[in-house]
Structure formats: structure tokens, C-alpha cells
Amino acid sequence: MPDLFDNAMQEAGTSQIGRPHFARVMVDQNLVKDVNKAFDRYLGNKRLGQLRDVWPDLESVLSVLNGHGMELVLAHPKRYPITVTKLKKLIFDFVQYGGTSLEVSSGNDKPESVRLLEGLIKEHKIKASVGSDFHGPYGPWCQVGKFTPFDEARIGTVWQDW
């Protein structure tokens, strides 16, 4: 595989560079048939291009963001490869450090996952958020505005305050 970094940076423009930019460059240079093939062969989980993320700790991030009049939403928590026990601990810590909302549905979530998150939202008295996890037209797994329905009438949502 040739060095694609400069072209991926150019593809990213002013946005943060990520694997989708490398995938589009691979397609442009005819190295793969389409973006999905780039992820299947090179960029997906357990592939050479899947680098381990290095994240700052949750308390540090939330302490910087807290108190600036913004919703602090934990995005798509059921997509993290962790057990339910660790998920509950993550959400507990998130709320303790100032988190205010939880994305209860983010695309094609299983209804039982949404129900679990609804229960955790009620338990922690935080708000719900939703999203379609749309990152561009290359992924068949999501569509703009599509998400698994949830019980909006029984739990508070971030948009109720807007």
C-alpha cells in the first residue's frame, strides 16, 4: 500500500482526519473497488489500519467541559465492546463527573439495547439523545435521521430544553 497520508489529509480538509478519508483515497487511487472494501480489507476492526485509540480519561474531559452550558452526551454507548456491568459503571462515572445525557438510539440499534439504555437514563435521571450515526453515504448501516424508536414520552430528551 502506498503512503496515503498526504492525500487523506487533503481529503479531510478542515475536518479531523479519520479512516473514512483514507478509504476514499484508496478508492480514488483504484486500490480498492469501493469504501466498504477498504474497510473490509484494510481499515476495519482487527485489520492493519485499525489503530488502537488513545483517549484521555473521562473525568479530565468532563471536568473541562462541565459548567459551560452545554449538554454532555455519551454517544452510542451500546456500540462499545464492553459488558453490561462495565457499561453501567461507565454511565455511573459519566454522570458523577457531570455528564447530562445518553444517546439511547444511534441508527439500527436492537430494541432490547434501547430498552436497557432507557432504563439507565431513568435510573440516573439524565436525558436522552438520539442520532443516526451517519458519517457519509458510503455506509449501508445507517441513514440520515434513522434511529430505533424509544419511549420519548417517559424519559426527558435534550431537545425538550431547546
Summarize the structure.
The chain has 162 residues and is mainly alpha-helical. Helices cover 38% and strands 8% of the residues. The protein folds into two domains: 5-43, no CATH class; 58-161, TIM Barrel (Alpha-Beta Barrel), CATH 3.20.20.140.
Descriptive key words:
3-stranded parallel β-sheet; 162 residues; mainly alpha; 6 helices; TIM Barrel
Topology diagram in text:
Blueprint lengths: L4 H8 L6 H10 L6 H9 L14 H8 L7 E2 L9 H13 L4 E6 L4 H14 L2 E5 L31
Parallel strand pairs: 1-2, 2-3
Helix pairs in contact: 1-2, 2-3
Q: Describe the biggest sheet?
A: 3 strands, parallel
Query: What's the CATH class label of the largest domain?
Result: Alpha Beta
The total tally of domains equals 2
The radius of gyration computed from the alpha-carbon positions, rounded to a whole number of angstroms, is: 18 Å
Number of strands: 3
Strand order of the largest sheet: 1-2-3
Sheet/helix structural class: mainly alpha
At CATH level 2, the architecture of the largest domain is Alpha-Beta Barrel
CATH topology of the largest domain: TIM Barrel
The N- and C-terminal alpha carbons lie at a distance of 48 Å
Query: Helical content, roughly?
Result: 25-40%
What does this structure look like?
The protein has 162 residues and is mainly α. Helix content is 38%, strand content 8%. It has helices at 5-12, 19-28, 35-43, 58-65, 84-96, 111-124, and strands at residues 73-74, 101-106, 127-131. The chain has a three-stranded parallel beta sheet with strand order 1-2-3, covered by helices on one side. α1 crosses α2 (19-28) and α2 (19-28) crosses α3 (35-43). It is elongated and about 50 Å long.
